[in-house]
Write a structure and sequence with these properties.
- The chain is α+β, with helices and mostly antiparallel strands.
- The protein has one domain.
- Helix content is 31%, strand content 37%.
- A 7-stranded mixed β-sheet has the order 1-2-3-4-5-6-7.
Length: 145
């Protein structure tokens, strides 16, 4: 069985700036879901990253002809709610950066996320898997090219 690669990212200048206790409190709901994220990542040979940009989140990513990512993140810490988005991108030989993103869910309670997480992750994976190079939109070009 292939194990997922797990990356923990912290200490970014943007993101959370509260106490350690406050951090533990806002990250705890996602930590409780980690076994589901880990199982999904292992089953689909994805990389699992936690807390990108020092913000409570879980990202599942993989690469084929495109870079692909599913991310569930704390959308509003005052009234705890979570968002889910997907992205696919590619750097091309013409110096261009091509991207497509889509919100899958917004302002969901952790209870709603927990209840539907396996289905939500599978729907997001299937959506991303359908995207091809032709679906991406050029966002910028490298200035040296």
């Amino acid at each position: 069985m292939v194990e997922a690669i797990v990356i923990v990212i912290s200490s970014m200048p943007n993101g959370f700036h509260g106490s350690d206790e406050a951090w533990r409190s806002i990250e705890a709901p996602l930590q409780k879901l980690d076994p589901i994220f880990e199982e999904f990542a292992n089953r689909h040979h994805m990389t699992l990253a936690r807390n990108s940009r020092n913000w409570p989140s879980r990202s599942l990513s993989w690469r084929d002809n495109l870079e692909r990512k599913i991310e569930i993140y704390l959308q509003d810490e005052r009234e705890p709610s979570y968002g889910v988005w997907v992205a696919a991108w590619q750097y091309r030989s013409d110096g261009g950066y091509y991207l497509k993103t889509e919100a899958v869910a917004e302002r969901k309670s952790i209870t709603a996320i927990k209840t539907s997480l396996p289905v939500l992750l599978e729907q997001a994976r299937q959506l991303l898997s359908c995207w091809s190079e032709g679906d991406l939109v050029r966002k910028w070009m490298h200035p040296r090219l």
